[in-house]
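Journal club prep — side note

Before the paper discussion, L.F. wants everyone to see what a predicted structure for a comparable chain looks like in token form. Sequence:
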Amino acid sequence: MKLTDQLTDYINAAFTGIWIQTSEQDEAEREIVQHARQQRWKLAVWDLANGLRLPGNPDGQRQDSSAADPLAALRSLPALAERNGTALLVLHNFHRVLNNPEVIQTTFAQLVAGKQQRTFLVVLSPTVQIPLELEKLFVVLEHSLPDREQLERIARELTADSAEDLPQGDNLQRVLDAAAGLTRYEAEGAFALSLTRQNALRPECIWELKAQTLRKNNLLTLHRGGERFDSLGGLANLKDFCGRALRPGKPVKPRGVLLLGVPGTGKSCFARALGNETGRPTLLLDLGSLMGSLVGQTECAV
């Protein structure tokens, strides 16, 4: 279900606190602003850098220079309310200011009063950090990352002037597979990098960007070796099965294969070669990095 459809349902049901977990706050705001215009809801947006603003105003900028204060923004919400109307206050990264008892109490009061006033607080944040006092007053929604259709639209827009730069058939599917899980901003950047380097969209540049993301958590690494099936003896049935199961364009997505065996039988080598054979990435997890060096340290992190 689309974010705007979920938002409409919860607002119609008078859930006054809506927490939207998103890695694309600007895109989520754009969707909400556009939807609010269609529904004729009044809407204001707040963040620490710009304060309170009313999207769609002729000046399009800040409403009140003092409203960079979260308390001032919260207290301005009743002024947006109209008889038989709906008003939304969209708050960016509001979890950063919810360590203040006065902000928590004011938020609580506005959420309770919103039932009668038809006023709603909509938080946009990459994480869900709701204080215990407000936990029962918020519902949590998820803003989905772009799907294959949206990623393909981004790719076509970037190659509109040079259609030959856009791959076709299975090659396009491999590019879209590689871009899955990226935000719109990341996808545009990865596609632009590929066009700059190779004058075409190639999955290799996209995986390079993903590899940089993996380095930030120090748990997963992207294998970049050149192993192929012809360098690995035996396992003919497994090679044939996995090659057919992972072929691009299959209507049923593969569920995976679990390889069990004693050390030295070729499990890891097969996985690395399989990635290169099918044009898919091979991710390596260092189990040692999940374990603490002291007794009980690993369990404390769970």
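L.F.'s comment for the group: The chain has a mean pLDDT of 85. Keep this in mind when we get to the figures.
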